[in-house]
Amino acid sequence: MVNITLDDTSPFISYSDGWGVQSPQDPNLEYYLQETYHGTQTIGSNATIVFSGSGVYLYGSMGPAHGNFEVSVNGARQTFSGYSSTPLFQQCLFSSMLDASYNEIILINIGGSGGSFMDLDYIITTVPENTTFPAPPSLAPITPSGGFPSASPTSTSSSTGGSSLSTASSSSTSTTVTTVLTIVFAILTVVLLSIIAFLYMRHRRRKQVEQEHLFRYGRGPAVSPSPQPDLMTNLHWTSQAHTQGPAGGGSPNMGYPPRQSPVTSSLGASYQLQAGRSKGKNPPSTFLPGFDA
After folding, report:
1. Per-residue pLDDT band at 156 (split at 50, 70, 90)
2. Would you list the domain boundaries of the chain?
């Protein structure tokens, strides 16, 4: 006879609805065999193993949030408590010597006043060498022998660290959602970068075209308007020509510069025109000083 250890993930252990696997964030995973376990808080959830051997040992954890459980050995049930004031790991929850024949072992969660959490870490069986395990049957929740407890389970987490149990379906859904979100984010990132690159290249191309246009058809320097003669300066020069003589003495220079057309101030002419009309006379001609009439 040999002892064979079956971890909780073994295909020879069948679980009903209501079980979940360990959370990756569980800080106590290192205390479980191969850092895995199955746990449940559902009353009536059960795990079954069928084998031919002479002994069986069920291992799991115990803690303040654990409740009661039943073990059915070929139909005969016994009740046990998983409660402990402090968390304990890899504890032998049940053991039995059996006839070396066909045996069916069922672990059933029945809860209790302290809590309703129960987990299964691994199972050890004593079997003949070269023993093969039959495929486990499909299971459904089992009603505890004492009936369901009247009070609803008060604990929603296990003090042993199995507080976050995720079912296979929820785990698969979470993985799918994460994958979809990752793909969508990647696509949006590529589109955004493409738009930014397009706008940058268009702006750069526009600047190049403008520079090339200025280079080919550059604008010349702005031309300032020609300066206008200073009328007041000319008038001052003319007045001095009438009153001063040539340099070195002598009579004043009575010569006049070439005769020019009279310059009439538009504002003064307009004023005198209006004044003449108001008196019934023609407005007198207005000439600049130093010029003949």
Report:
1. very low
2. 2-166
